[in-house]
Amino acid sequence: MRSRLTLAAASLAILPSVVCQTFTTCDPIKKTCPDDPGLNADSLDADFTHGSGAISSFSAAAYTTLTYGDNGAEFTIAKQGQAPTIQSNFYIFFGMISVTMRAASGTGIVSSVVLQSDDLDEIDWEWLGGNSATVETNYFGKGNTTVYNRAIYYPVSDPQDNFHTYAIDWTADRIKWIIDGTVVRTLQYGDANEGKNYPQTPMILKMGTWAGGGEGQPEGTIEWAGGKTNFSKAPSTMYVKNVQITNYYPASSYSFTDKSGRWQSIKVNTDASSGSNSSNMTMSSSTSSPSTTASVAPLDQNTGAAVAVTSTGESYSVNTASVSALNSGSAVVATTQVPAATASRSPTHSGSQSTQTGSSGAGRLGIGALTLLITVGLGFWVL
Ligand SMILES: *[C@@H]1O[C@H](CO)[C@@H](O)[C@H](O)[C@H]1NC(C)=O
Ligand SMILES: *[C@@H]1O[C@H](CO)[C@@H](O)[C@H](O)[C@H]1NC(C)=O
Ligand SMILES: *[C@@H]1O[C@H](CO)[C@@H](O)[C@H](O)[C@H]1NC(C)=O
Ligand SMILES: *[C@@H]1O[C@H](CO)[C@@H](O)[C@H](O)[C@H]1NC(C)=O
């Protein structure tokens, strides 16, 4: 057994569409990385209305404290710097996630449910607190943010007051975004830059809330989020009643066998003792049997969860004060790139289930003037 540092932090974990994640602890298309622990079962149900027990399959990001009630897990933002976020302790390789939830209210508050891979594939649901009529869908492949034209908004009846079930059904051929059983959007593999931008590597599930209009956020992000967050209207809470996850290729772990980032390169490692099997992409047996148990060190919320800095190009500097505030030598630094320009917030409704009509929900990225959001987080993952 060994410890591996992981669980990048709060805000970046659940960044909205305009701020595709650009940090990963290890990018398998750039170097050799440890295998990803898999959900070694066909499915997993986490019912948060029964309290904290359901959290056992997830890790909380730094500074995250969830509370529980009749409406399930409560992701509450009460003040600047908070971004309660959890992520699954396992990866799935194609599958379906269904989340029954209510989005947080308040201009400048963002709620997110995101599938995300080590090489920065991403499939998103996002709700803006200033918009109680729509939900945004988005995706990214291998962190490609050169064109922000993938976000599409769909109408939904008051997502802040009503519980709805939002699902993503993800296969090698297509991705479906589904609201209360109705498919609102389908992305075909070939329509994502001939597959090159198609999300296709093992994903974790991240959920949380974040102040997109918080102090220190780049102007484009604040505008996209609907304006500055007014913390005197806090608290603002996203409620998650339950999460159902189906893994189409259950495995004890997944390996990237080359640096292509293609689904064909993913090795599905089944564990003989697990009782689980899978039809294979590429089948192999594995002697290692990663546990999906995680423990996360509790951290003081008051030390400030997120540090926003600006920089250029690929380089960035870290707020060392915040890093040392984490008081354990094992902080990870995460960076997220944010478009310089403003996002279009006008919702676009596409009635079609199979086409990618609709305008972009995001702005344009000025390469060379990347704005990086640096966040520090801490977590341990027992392999
Ligand atoms: C990134 O996406 C854009 C838009 O689809 C595409 O033109 C470009 O070739 C992609 N870049 C890579 C490296 O795939
Ligand atoms: C923030 O919200 C409070 C309470 O609703 C309100 O009194 C105040 O004017 C708001 N501030 C801004 C800058 O909108
Ligand atoms: C997996 O299990 C199912 C039923 O449990 C069985 O029908 C199938 O043949 C198994 N597949 C493999 C590859 O062992
Ligand atoms: C699974 O992998 C094994 C070993 O590589 C191969 O012989 C078999 O044909 C594969 N099965 C499927 C259904 O692809």
Q: How would you describe the overall organization of this protein?
A:
The protein has helices spanning 10-13, 219-224, 320-325, and strands at 3-5, 36-37, 43-47, 58-60, 67-69, 72-77, 85-88, 95-102, 109-117, 122-128, 134-140, 152-155, 164-170, 174-179, 182-188, 203-211, 236-247, 253-256, 266-270, 283-285, 294-295, 306-308, 332-338, 371-377, 380-382. The longest helix is centred in the middle third of the chain and has 6 residues, at 219-224. The protein has three helices and 25 strands. It is globular, with a radius of gyration of 19 Å. The chain has one domain (3-9, 36-382): Jelly Rolls, CATH 2.60.120.200. Strands 3, 5, 6, 8, 13, 14, 15 and 17 form an eight-stranded antiparallel sheet that branches. The chain has a seven-stranded antiparallel sheet with strand order 4-7-16-9-10-11-12. The chain has a four-stranded mixed sheet with strand order 2-18-19-20, with no helix packed on it. It is mostly beta strands and 383 residues long. The termini are close together. The chain binds 2-acetamido-2-deoxy-beta-D-glucopyranose (4 copies). One 2-acetamido-2-deoxy-beta-D-glucopyranose is lined by residues 230, 232-233.
